[in-house]
Write a structure and sequence with these properties.
The structure holds three protein chains of three kinds. Chain A is mainly α. In chain A, 71% of the residues lie in helices and 3% in strands. Chain A has helices spanning 2-32, 39-56, 61-82, 92-114, 139-161, 163-173, 175-180, 185-208, 221-232, 237-261, 269-284, and strands spanning 129-132, 135-138. The chains are: A mainly alpha, B alpha/beta, C mainly alpha. At the A-C interface, helix 4, helix 9 and helix 11 of A face helix 6, helix 11, helix 13 and helix 15 of C.
Chain lengths: 298, 420, 362
Amino acid sequence: MTELLQLLTQGIALGAIYGLVALGFVLIYKATEVINFAHGEFLLLGAYTVYAFHAVVGLPFYVAAVLAMLAMAALGWAVERSLLRRMIGRPTFSVAMVTIGLAIVLRQVVAAAAGYDDRVIGDPWGASTVTLAGAQVNVVSLVTVGATAVLFAAFFVFFRRSKYGLAMRATAIDHEAALAVGIPVRQVYALSWMLAAATATVGGVFLAAFPATLSPALGFVAFRAFPAAIVGGLDSPGGAIVGGLLIGVTEMLVQGYQPRFAPWLGNDVHVVASYVLMIAVLVVRPYGLFGTPKVERV
Amino acid sequence: MRKALNTFAVIVVVLLVATACRTQVKTAVGVEGRTITLGEISTLTGPVAVIGKPLTRGHEVYFQYVNEVLGGVGQKLPKEERYKVTLATVDSQYRPDVQVQQYNAIKGKVLMIAQSLGTAHTNAILPQINEDKILTAAATLSSDWPKQKYVVATGAPYPVQFINAAQYLKDKGVSPKVGIIYQDDDYGLDGVKGLEFAAKEFGFQILARATYKTTDTAFGAQVSAMRAAGADHVFLASTPTATGTIMGTAATLQYSPQWIGLSPAWAGALVGTAAQPSPILPYISQRLWVVTDAQCAWGDVGTGCEGMKELIENLKKFGGDQPPDYYFVFGYTQARVVHQILEKAVEMGDLTREGVVKAFESLKKVDMGGLLNPISYGSTCQEKVPATGSTIWKIDPKQPIALASVATVDSPAIKRFQFC
Amino acid sequence: MSRPEGLRTRYGEHTRLLRRRVDRLWVALLLVAIAATPAVLDDAWLSVLTFTAIAAIGAIGLNLLTGFTGQVSLGHAFFIGLGAYTAGYLGGDLRLPVLVWLPAAGLVGALVGLAIGPFAVRLKGIYLGIVTLGLVFLGEYAFQNLRVITGGPQGRAIPSPRIGDVDLADLGALLGLDLSREQSFFYFIAPLLLAATLFAKNVARGRTGRAFQAVRDREIAAAVIGVDVARYKVAAFGLSSFYAAASGALLGSYVRHVTPASFDLFVSVQFVAMVIVGGVGTVYGSIFGALFIVLLPRVVEQLSPILPLASESSAGGGLTLAVLNQVIYGLLIVGFLVAEPLGLAGIWARLRLYFRTWPFSY
């Protein structure tokens, strides 16, 4: 029982991170219908930027985090302005391929600048733990879950209440109609990239915080979190969180129990489990659990 | 007059013989004029570059020392006739397919491959190595290398490291409850192989096994599995990033077995910096051992550690900003071995690929200078005895690579391990 | 009286392979050039060309699916691996000749492709791309765990292409000539690439190809004019998987040792890059694309003396040759897509037009 509880809490902590990463995919897809394959590298760059401001420049951690978010938002803006804007109207896979090219470049640049050694990002939570209902939990995990919840709530309000949120939703539904009613679609595109890049900074920090370390391999998590975005539905921020938790818990439970109860399945079942779940969901609901089906006209 | 002529003739003959002696070193592919080109297929980008870069740096520093201080390969030749060494370094990106492409790109111009990083990656070029009969120094500690005619192994294979760790436990009178967490690749499996052998030899059971994938970020399930099985000694065939997270997770779960990691599981960077120590530092200084094939600790320049003295001097001279690093030591030592093979080949007067292979086979013992545990070479698998000694270290941030020696072990059981 | 260039009055003229008499001359010249290549280039460059030819076969397959039918697939690596392991099992464990294992590998790929096709029919656009991405992960898992066939993480050996006692990668021994493995393998692979190109070209210009393109351009419109969308989508998957698996079998047989790590997402990405850089929806563009992607690292290495490198040492910090190589790779993909949507095939077509209408540029 304690073990199940322990696995569940760890699954939720992992799921919160996956949810944060998936949120980055969703923010961009929702407005621009682009899958950003460079999102893993955004996480990586975000975490290293925090590290640079905090450990290298010597700013307090929270100041460094805010500055890094601003810097990353600027990068998101620059990427949209210089590359993605030129790709509007091109086939989806061409656009996806641009982000893959970008990912290759960013990954190398980060590693060339920072080296390959593991680093300590220097977050204020350290290795402290608390006991929750008999399970030991990292304070970092709690903060992650909390931050994910806050971010999600913030985006919820933003999409429902703010002018830009509404503009983003309108753009997501129909670019041309949005343009026709005077919504600055270009600004909306730029905004969604900025928000995703800033969110990636938060995700990157939690990925690099205790018990993990900051290393150039951090960006690979994007493909582990990918099923989360799909299961939830690529255009649903709420779906991203649900998908993240679902995938995180599934992964942790499979990893915990499969070697004991179904060893004949072999190694690394937990990695494919999330993809199997994703494919299963897509077969039943082609646009994910909370995604919006597209109506196609001749 | 006639006498004078005779004397002259004798002088001419002597000179001719001398000249003949001078140019008698046979050369072919990979040697142009007085320059030897060696191939280096390493991993210089991607996460494994954390190993590949310092390792390659070790080669570079050592051969710069050979060129600039020793004047080149061929210590018995006059200084101006010695062979300078240049390295043709290519990046495998830690991909077996790229390894093959890179091998093909450089094989036409190198005398031997002085570094081929990665077990699967070296296996990928093995068919060609055997066909091209090109001697290759493997920068991987797989236990399969003695079987290969053209592969030069350096250091103690992974199974040896675990067997020695188990021997150490036995010597201390511990009857361990053992678990293992390993990376799901050939490296991890080689570790398992050693642990299984040790389990049979020393009569303990492996209570829990768990694998992870390099893209895993959470290790809660693996650590929980070890705890659930009641393991009090958990072996790790992991990479540093995974080791760090596993240690952190275990600390969180308040699970404190003795962790025993293979050499690739450790990187000095895991302790953090003086200004920003890692949050796992208190835990790992208590609970983690690392087994390596290094003999002398970094900076230990006492008797038996002459190689370390030389290494530190050369690092100062040629190393630039290279920090102390286990893989630097490994690369440096490997380059030293390659150098000794080349010296032998020059001595035998045959600096062709066949000559280099012959030199390697006739080189029984090499001088490791105390950097790594000694190793024997030969022409058959039985003659090629991998290093059998290991050193067990604990974590101590005050040491240069954060490792302080606990014990050196050379288990007699290793003789029974099947390398061939 | 001669007709103006490019005016065609019958369908037959539009779909003809060699439209003008002079094209035959070009083809003849090309064949001579291919035959002469192993005599001219050294082994290192021949190896690059062999990798290109193998990759081109896979890229043509992907182009039939993505370029002609408009179905995004990131799962190509899985089929490449499937082909390689099938070749290893049939050729190595069962000791069958290349005449059996090469088509068999293709067929196994095609069958799996056909089995996956129905999923594809249900999914659209990027969602399809993601499911096929899942295929790569499922494949890696299968390759790791089916040790009897795949050898697990250590990988397995794949045999050279043999017919009986004759090793096609060592024709020198048969003919009594001094041929290196590279030269021999080139002569083995070049006709296969030609055959693959010709077949794809024939599919593309025929009824099937036109149906593929109709599905790509507007699915509903295609259905309205009577194209069985589901059937053609599944067919495109099968065909593309056949090419991929055959390419994988050849790759395995050339390299002779494969591991699951050789078939990860990166491989899929490279194939998509080949298709896009070469030119979406063109057969010969795939060959350009393959050449470009395989050749690129070599070219960057050749340029290294004039490149502004921050680090002399290849293992030092900062911008090394290895890093720069990949940065340029990434930048070229991005640059190509942003600046030249038609890819190398587009540039090629424009060049041809330029010379054909020279000196009157349009």
